[in-house]
């Protein structure tokens, strides 16, 4: 794993960390991650990348496999790449005619940072 600017987290990196926990060969690491391995993995990633991982219950739940751990770590360590993709595709959908529709430009629901939607706007100082 590289701690430099554009750090990339790969499957081999996660398996390497898990192998160091058990001091066993890389090839002997199973797909499933138990709770002690997960704690070790999070600690080692924080140390290697120089980051503090603030993982919620949903993210931790997805990290029960090597593949899931790689996905979550990529999301939290490489957020600019994932957020650019999410922003580019958020709320857009293709209709049966193949045209891409963006609800925000069509007076559709407003997406708030909390993930909640609103069909109306509020004036400053008023409650929705």
Q: How do you describe this structure in short?
A:
The chain is mainly alpha-helical. Helices cover 44% and strands 6% of the residues. The chain has helices at 11-22, 35-49, 57-62, 66-77, 79-89, and strands at 93-94, 100-101, 110-111, 117-118.
Written account of the structure:
This protein has 128 residues and is mainly α. Helices cover 44% and strands 6% of the residues. The protein is built from 5 helices and 4 strands; from the N terminus they run H-H-H-H-H-E-E-E-E. The strands form 2 sheets. It has a two-stranded antiparallel sheet. A two-stranded antiparallel ribbon has the order 3-4. The N terminus is likely disordered.
Write out key terms for the chains shown.
single chain, 128 residues, mainly alpha, two-stranded antiparallel ribbon, two-stranded antiparallel sheet, disordered N terminus
Please state the overall shape, judged from the principal axes of the Cα atoms.
globular
Q: Uncertain segments of ≥5 residues (pLDDT<50)?
A: 1-5, 84-90, 92-98, 100-105, 108-121
**Strand numbers in spatial order across the main sheet:** 1-2
* Alpha-carbon distance between the two ends: 46 Å
Structural class, by secondary structure, is mainly alpha
Helix content: 40-55%
Instruction: Evaluate the radius of gyration.
Output: 20 Å
Put simply, the count of helices is 5
- Please provide the count of β strands: 4
Mean pLDDT value? 74
Written as H for each helix and E for each strand, in order along the chain, the element string is HHHHHEEEE
User: Strand percentage, roughly?
Assistant: 5-15%
Largest sheet: 2 strands, antiparallel
